[in-house]
């Protein structure tokens, strides 16, 4: 009787022990994640517990919270506060602007309109970030197109009133916090629209009909059905906009008043100042803020609809 | 007399498609009304014309005498049990049920009580804190029912309410729905493609085809006296006999229906027709014989204890002349 070789010892073994296969498949990405990603993060965390010797400028490898104490010095604390407020403002504004766009795309856009939507949202992501930021610097400059356009429609008084606001105003939009805010908003908006649109698309249409049928007005349906169900998408989007703003060091350097943001502080301390521990401590701040933010979002029930 | 729901020459066209084509109908207050038909026959569109999710292209919809087709869904005195229930996944069962009261501004304590009472009515007391995802299909169905009924609608609309349930649960829910409708006295209008469901639950059945009502009547009417060939085919209870068959019996030429249980077996030459036995199916209480008469295949139900002739045998078929029911071509 002829015997056919129907078996393959290796695949048989994998069938009998599926966990071996799983481990083999997962090992490379886990190694990458563990060593490169978590490892570097751990190294960063470790650095932040060292301190710098103020006289020699050398790193003192003894565990201390002294560097974190430095963060509380007014100059540093202002940087943290400024960055967090900016990130929060950008996040809220992104959500407000993104919602109607995402809602339209999820509920009404079909066929070509939908393709146009994706293209319009993604297109800015395809060009260089630096090019976009410099373009905005020109747009917002005192001699720029925006000032010209505002003049053209006779609204320069409004622009001047805006620029004369304390703190957020300035000589021109390109050297004010308002300018920084606008550029952040522009650059990170797609990261809010896309997850929001995905989550709105998953809201079944019959839930909206059910709400309508039960007597809810459109506003009530929005508040009690659509927003809670879109919340995971909005949180996902806000994680992007919030953390990207927290960590960015290029936009505030090119557009805005010359006051520092966390990213710039990290850049300055690890570079010219050579204060790696303080740079590390600054870098830990966004991580902590994001952790607190997500914890609060979870407690508020933002993920209940998942 | 005022009707719960009235359609006055209502049409709903989607482009070239006439989903509902010049339908007039009256649904009596307190009745259990079924809209029966295959998919695409216009029954669901009719339901949505009552709930307000569709607006008529022509004609008027009235609810308790008041013009309704100009009102948005949230201002109509009707509530819907949706096909796949459409429960809000982020809300607890209690909040789902209380939703209609909440959007009307009823205070928290009283709407909570009302929701709990309604959950008791549908036998789900104690489930208020769960999320819809933690319930079985049958339980979700009850929540959907409670969520609609808590608003005390004048008319309850049910869109294929039992379609997603398994057979046994479906039968139990049929009885419960019927009992609930009786005790509440609310007009129920439900859409189904399951003729058994329509016939067993409804007081009045409208059979839809191609956007029109082809027959409106009691379940008995529909079952015993299908008006057209389509109704007989769709309700599926009877042999549908072509005009040639009637001609061969020396009757006026027309389509006719003859229920399987009305036919009995006799010796060849002794009945109205002779035929050849082509098959037998045992259905428990009866044996369903397939008998070929000329070009027509007839089903005849004979008691399970009666002897069954061998396949291929020639048999005589007989029936009471009144059992042969004439129909339109339709």
TrEMBL record, chain B:
Any coiled-coil regions, as ranges: none
GO biological process: quaternary ammonium group transport
Pfam families noted in UniProt: ABC_tran (PF00005), TOBE_2 (PF08402)
SUPFAM superfamilies (UniProt xref): MOP-like, P-loop containing nucleoside triphosphate hydrolases
Keyword annotations: ATP-binding, Nucleotide-binding, Transport
UniProt keyword Chloroplast present: no
A Gene Ontology term for the protein's cellular component: ATP-binding cassette (ABC) transporter complex
Keyword Nucleotide-binding: yes
Domain ABC transporter positions: 5-235
Single GO term (MF): ATP binding
InterPro entries cross-referenced by the UniProt entry: AAA+_ATPase, ABC_SmlMolc_Importer, ABC_transporter-like_ATP-bd, ABC_transporter-like_CS, Mo/tungstate-bd_C_term_dom, P-loop_NTPase, Transp-assoc_OB_typ2
Entries under PROSITE patterns matching the protein: ABC_TRANSPORTER_1, ABC_TRANSPORTER_2
Protein name stated in the entry: ABC transporter ATP-binding protein
Species this protein is from: Thalassobius vesicularis
């Amino acid at each position: 009787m002829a015997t056919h070789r129907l078996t393959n010892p290796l695949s048989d073994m994998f069938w009998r022990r599926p966990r071996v296969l799983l481990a083999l498949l997962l090992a490379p990405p886990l190694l990458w994640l563990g060593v490169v990603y978590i490892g570097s993060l751990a190294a960063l965390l470790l650095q932040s517990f060292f301190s710098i010797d103020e006289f020699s400028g050398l790193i003192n490898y003894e565990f201390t919270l002294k560097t974190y104490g430095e963060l509380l010095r007014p100059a540093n604390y202002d940087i943290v506060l400024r960055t967090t407020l900016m990130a929060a403002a950008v996040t809220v504004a992104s959500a407000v602007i993104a919602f109607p766009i995402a809602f339209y795309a999820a509920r009404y856009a079909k066929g070509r309109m939908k393709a146009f939507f994706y293209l319009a949202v993604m297109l800015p992501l395809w060009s260089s970030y630096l090019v976009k930021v410099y373009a905005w610097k020109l747009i917002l400059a005192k001699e720029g197109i925006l000032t010209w356009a505002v003049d053209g429609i006779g609204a320069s008084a409004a622009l001047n009133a805006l620029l004369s606001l304390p703190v957020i105003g300035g000589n021109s939009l390109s050297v004010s916090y308002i300018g920084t805010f606008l550029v952040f908003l522009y650059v990170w908006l797609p990261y809010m629209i896309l997850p929001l649109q995905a989550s709105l698309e998953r809201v079944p249409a019959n839930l909206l009909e059910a709400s309508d049928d039960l007597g809810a007005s459109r506003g009530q349906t929005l508040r009690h059905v659509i927003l809670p169900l879109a919340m995971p998408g909005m949180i996902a989007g806000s994680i992007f906009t919030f953390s990207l703003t927290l960590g960015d060091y290029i936009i505030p350097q090119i557009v805005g008043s010359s006051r520092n943001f966390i990213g710039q502080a990290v850049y300055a301390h690890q570079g010219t100042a050579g204060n790696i521990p303080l740079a590390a401590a600054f870098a830990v701040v966004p991580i902590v803020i994001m952790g607190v933010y997500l914890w609060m979002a979870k407690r508020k029930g933002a993920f209940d609809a998942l | 007399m005022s009707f719960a729901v009235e359609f006055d020459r209502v049409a709903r066209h989607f482009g070239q498609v006439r989903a509902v084509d010049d339908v007039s109908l009256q649904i009596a207050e307190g009745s259990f009304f079924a809209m029966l038909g295959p998919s695409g026959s216009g029954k669901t569109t009719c339901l949505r014309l009552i709930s307000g999710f569709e607006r008529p292209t022509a004609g008027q919809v009235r609810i308790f005498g008041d013009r309704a087709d100009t009102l948005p869904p949230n201002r109509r005195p009707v509530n819907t049990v949706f096909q796949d229930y459409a429960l809000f996944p982020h809300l607890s069962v209690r909040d789902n049920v209380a939703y209609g009261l909440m959007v009307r501004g009823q205070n928290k304590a009283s709407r909570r009580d009302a929701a709990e009472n309604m959950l008791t009515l549908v036998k789900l007391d104690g489930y208020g804190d769960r999320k819809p995802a933690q319930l079985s299909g049958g339980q979700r169905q009850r929540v959907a029912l409670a969520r609609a009924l808590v608003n005390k609608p004048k008319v309850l609309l049910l869109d294929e309410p039992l379609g997603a349930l398994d057979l046994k649960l479906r039968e139990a829910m049929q009885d419960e729905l019927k009992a609930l409708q009786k005790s509440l006295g609310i007009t129920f209008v439900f859409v189904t493609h399951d003729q058994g469901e329509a016939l067993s639950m409804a007081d009045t059945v409208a059979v839809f085809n191609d956007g029109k009502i082809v027959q409106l009547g009691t379940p008995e009417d529909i079952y015993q006296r299908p008006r057209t060939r389509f109704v007989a085919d769709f309700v599926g209870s009877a042999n549908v006999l072509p005009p040639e068959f009637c001609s061969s019996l020396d009757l006026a030429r027309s389509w006719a229906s003859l229920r399987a249980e009305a036919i009995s077996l006799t010796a060849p030459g002794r009945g109205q027709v002779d035929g050849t036995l082509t098959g037998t199916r045992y259905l428990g209480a009866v044996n369903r014989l397939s008998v070929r008469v000329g070009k027509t295949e007839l089903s005849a139900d004979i008691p399970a204890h009666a002897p069954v002739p061998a396949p291929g045998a020639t048999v005589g078929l007989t029936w009471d002349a009144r059992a042969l029911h004439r129909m339109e071509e339709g």
